[in-house]
Amino acid sequence: MKNSEIIEMTTAELIERVETEKAALNKMTMNHTITPMENPMQIRAARKTIARMMTEIRKRELTEKK
């Protein structure tokens, strides 16, 4: 997911999406420990996507305070 797509989402959508992405990441990690994934870089990409969304949420919180 690109930053431009993340910026277009509402805050509520972002929070909901972060929760689903975290659940998917946990599932992916567990599956990877049991049987190795074909492309383990998906785990890194998922972590970075979650970080981008969390950064955008935090940025919006800080702009609301000012």
UniProtKB/TrEMBL annotation:
UniProt keyword annotation of Hydrolase present: no
Q: Which keywords appear in this protein's UniProt record, sorted alphabetically?
A: Ribonucleoprotein, Ribosomal protein
Q: Recorded GO terms, molecular function?
A: structural constituent of ribosome
Give the stretches traversing the membrane. Answer: none
| GO CC terms in record | ribonucleoprotein complex; ribosome
Q: Which InterPro entries match?
A: Ribosomal_uL29, Ribosomal_uL29_CS, Ribosomal_uL29_sf
Q: What are its GO biological-process terms?
A: translation
Gene3D superfamilies xref list: 1.10.287.310
Say which family it is in.
Answer: Belongs to the universal ribosomal protein uL29 family.
Protein name per Swiss-Prot or TrEMBL? Large ribosomal subunit protein uL29
Q: Which organism is it from?
A: Odoribacter splanchnicus
